[in-house]
Amino acid sequence: MTDEEKTYKTKKVITIGIVSELTGLSERQIRYYEERRLIFPTRSERGTRKYSFADVETLMDIANQMEDGVRTFEIRQEMKKKPDEQKLRRSMIKGQLNARFGIQNEQRK
């Protein structure tokens, strides 16, 4: 993804302290979720973790699931499924639009 394709939601510009304030999670909890490969901050040249608003939303979701007793392993497994589900959803919508407007898929020609 190029910088031009990034939105405010995906740009990694928020420090861990601000994320902690926004989410109510401690910095230690946030680092733990990174260790468990649930969140993937970028690092500045000085090694400072940088998060996006999308990461903040992910952390809130993780925290809610943890409160409900879901283990980090289970959360990670669900997170792995999401890109496939999104790809399938996009494909279905594209197919519906193509059918609606009579556009043939290049693969079917």
Automatic annotation (TrEMBL):
Keywords: DNA-binding, Repressor, Transcription, Transcription regulation. SMART domains: HTH_MERR (SM00422). PROSITE patterns: HTH_MERR_2 (PS50937). GO terms for molecular function: DNA binding; DNA-binding transcription factor activity. Residues 13-59 form the HTH merR-type domain. InterPro entries: DNA-bd_dom_put_sf, MerR-type_HTH_dom, MerR_fam. PANTHER family: HTH-TYPE TRANSCRIPTIONAL REGULATOR TNRA (PTHR30204:SF65), REDOX-CYCLING DRUG-SENSING TRANSCRIPTIONAL ACTIVATOR SOXR (PTHR30204). This is MerR family transcriptional regulator.
